[in-house]
Structures are given as C-alpha cells and as structure tokens.
Specification:
Layout lengths: L5 E6 L7 H15 L3 E5 L13 E3 L27 E4 L5 E4 L2 H10 L4 E6 L1 H11 L5 E5 L15 H22 L2 E6 L6 H9 L4 E3 L7 H13 L5 E6 L10 E5 L9 E2 L2 H13 L3 E5 L11 H19 L5 E6 L2 E6 H4 L28 E3 L5 H6 L4
Helix pairs in contact: 1-8, 4-5, 6-7
The structure holds 6-O-phosphono-beta-D-fructofuranose.
Length: 387
C-alpha cells in the first residue's frame, strides 16, 4: 500500500442535488492538489459491509463531468444504519444487527485516515456514534429540507425551492383557467422550509407548515373570502409533514420500522384538498411534487455551495479538524462540531421573518404523531378508520 494519505468518502441518507459537486471538489483538492488517495464507498456504509468491499478509487477522471449531475455517483441509502442493520432471516423475518464493528474494521484494513461523510441529520448521528468508536470524520451537510442545525443552508435546498416554485407558477395558470383551488404538496417532514420559500416565491395564498398546526376552518374561510372578492382561483401549498391542529398527526403512506426506516409521509395535500372541496364547494385538485424536488441537475447556487463545502471538507481533513462539519454562516464557510448538530433540527420559527432559523439557538422540535393518509371524512377520521 502506498504511503499517500488515504481518505474515504461516502454519501448517506436520501439523495439531493449537489452531492456529486461535493465529491468532485474533494477529489480536485485532495487528489489533484494535495496528492491523496480518495476512496469512494458505495451506498453509504453498505459498501464496507459487503464482501468484497464495494469501493472505488476516485481520481480526476472519475469525477469529470459530474458537476451538473443530480444524485450521487456513489449511491446512497436512507435506511439501514450499521448500528441497526436490517437482515432478512431464512423464514423472511427481519432482525436488526449491530454491524458497526465491521465498518470500523474495514476502515482499519483499508488504512483510511478518516472519512468525509456527506449526509443529513440522521447520518451525522451515525457518524457521531462511529466517532465514539474511534473513527475520524469530517461532515458535509446535505438535504433538500434545509433542516440541519448550525448551518444557514444545506445544498439541495435551493434546487428544490426552484423546482417547487416553477410547479406553483404552472399551477397558477391552470387554476385561473378553471376557477379552482390547486393544492400543491411539497416535501418537508419536520421542517417547512421548502413549502415556505417556494410558497412565498410562487405567491401562494395559503401555506401550511409542519411547525404550525393548521385550522381547516381558517383555511376555508380565507378561500371563501377570496372567492367573494372575485379571486376565483387559489393556490394552497402544504408541506408533507403539516398537521391539523385538532387532527391525528402527520399523514403517512407506509409505517416505518421504528429502527432504521422512517415512516413514508404522503397524503397531506389530498387530505386538505378534500376538506376544502367538501366545506367550500370550490372545485379543488391536488398535485404532489414528491421526488421531482430531489432529482435532477443542481441549481447554480447549489453547485457553488456544494463545491465550497467539498473544498472546505478537504481543507478540514488537511488541517486535521476531525469531528467538524462544514457549515455556512451568512456568506462565510465555518466549522461546527458534529456532536453539536446531532439530535437538533432547524425548523421554521413562527416568530422569524421566514428567511432563516431562530435568531438564538436552535429550536428542537418534538415530532407530531403520525396518522394514515387519505382519511375520507371528518367522522371517519375521528373514528380512526382509514377512508
Ligand atoms: O429528507 C429529505 C426527504 O426528501 C424528506 O423531505 C422526505 O420525507 C423524505 O426525504 C422522502 O424519502 P424517501 O426517498 O425515502 O421517500
């Protein structure tokens, strides 16, 4: 094995536009300028849990042309932490196995000086658990949801807002043609940043966020007032994690396993749309933007931010600033301790101007309970039956 510095890099959690530009920047700085070997690990930590390991050396050629590509050339997963790894038994039953020591052993065998981990809140937590076992990490914050504590922006968010805003713009014209209410469901499990920013940018009439439980009477009153004033169409933006104040919690399509897989949210838009049509009599349609917000080429802003984060992460490795995550404060790239990020969520503060998180500290949100999606009526909802 050569005596060059060897660094591992992996992408973890749901994908997001900008992952490839981060990888590219790490390789440009680390390999081309600092003479390191950069080892890409496939599918988050899974590449180290396979035999043989699924890894690839990333040289300049490997990252050529990926600046504009969405997704991640390394692959990723948002379920299956090595600390509770789902393994199917012969009888089909799933058991959760702690395989963390295999990852630590793999890093030792591969002689990795440390890992650059590009991930969200859950991935930072896993990195922190590995740090307690002696592995060295530099973190890079990613998520379209922009909900990671201690950074003003994560890359991917800007692209998602652009996509969502364009969708709202398109819904405006068809809403006007048919005098309809158009409900647009956007991603945002616990934080409503995408819905808030795209909703404001798209001129939505109602924006429902996970942070502020909504009252359907107030929503319908507003739409009736608009109609009475001659504004016959309206746009309602709903974050997938929004909850009704008197309701049963978030709308879920598929339950999680309580260990490594989160519940799949969905149905918040349809739920709100159905109530609007039933209560106001205004014809209402729903659009769910879903993974269109996560796919595709990163915006110019995200390409730049991701490139800055990638170069920054390589610099942190060079300076041996292990245990830190690159972050953006204002326009400045800074380092924050991964341990200070774990378990916190940057949510929209009802008291803020909506452009940033809370002024002091970080609001840590208690999660609302989940409810199955597509409840048919108010009465079936209160009886707990799915429609
Ligand atoms: O964390 C980003 C996110 O896009 C959430 O907003 C959303 O709830 C989730 O990922 C969807 O994940 P999946 O790809 O598993 O459906």
């Amino acid at each position: 094995m050569s005596d060059k510095k060897r660094i591992g890099i992996l992408t973890s959690g749901g994908d997001c536009p900008g992952l490839n530009p981060v990888i590219r920047a790490v390789v440009k700085r680390g390999v081309s300028q600092l003479g390191w070997e950069v080892i890409g690990i496939r599918d988050s930590y899974n590449g180290l849990l396979s035999s043989p390991y699924r890894i690839q050396e990333l040289d300049r050629d490997a990252v050529r042309g990926i600046l504009t590509r969405g997704g991640t050339i390394l692959g990723t997963t948002n379920h299956g932490s090595p600390f509770a790894f789902p393994m199917r038994q012969a009888g089909g039953e799933i058991v959760y196995v702690d395989r963390s020591t295999e990852v630590v052993e793999a890093c030792r065998i591969l002689e990795l000086a440390g890992l650059i981990m590009i991930g969200g809140d859950g991935s930072m937590k896993i990195a922190h658990q590995f740090m307690e076992m002696g592995l060295r990490f530099v973190g890079v914050p990613k998520t379209i949801d922009n909900d990671i504590a201690s950074t003003d922006y994560t890359f991917g968010f800007n692209t998602a807002v652009e996509v969502a805003t364009e969708a709202i713009d398109r819904l405006q014209s068809t809403a006007e043609s048919h005098d309809r209410v158009m409900v647009c469901e956007l991603m945002g499990r616990d934080a409503g940043w995408i819905a808030l920013h795209a909703g404001i940018a798209g001129g939505a009439d109602v924006i429902l966020l996970p942070e502020i439980p909504y009252d359907l009477n107030r929503v319908c009153d507003k739409l009736r007032r608009r109609k009475a004033a001659g504004r016959l169409s309206s746009i309602v933006v709903v974050a997938e994690g929004a909850t009704e104040a008197e309701g049963a919690g978030q709308n879920i399509l598929e339950g999680g396993d309580g260990k490594s897989r989160m519940p799949r949210l969905g149905g918040a838009g349809a739920y709100v749309a159905r109530a609007i049509q039933e209560r106001t009599g205004i014809e209402t349609r729903t659009t769910v933007l879903g993974h269109l917000q996560r796919g595709g080429t990163p915006s110019a802003y995200d390409r730049l931010l991701a490139t800055r984060y990638g170069f920054g992460a390589a610099e942190f490795v060079r300076e041996e600033r292990w245990g830190e995550m690159v972050a953006l404060k204002g326009t400045e790239l800074i380092g924050v301790k991964i341990v200070d990020v774990v378990g916190k969520l940057k949510t929209v503060s009802p008291g803020s101007d909506g452009a940033s998180g809370p002024r002091r500290g970080h609001r840590v949100r208690r999660l609302a309970p989940c409810r199955p999606a597509f409840r048919a009526t108010r009465s079936s909802r209160s009886s707990g039956k799915a429609g």
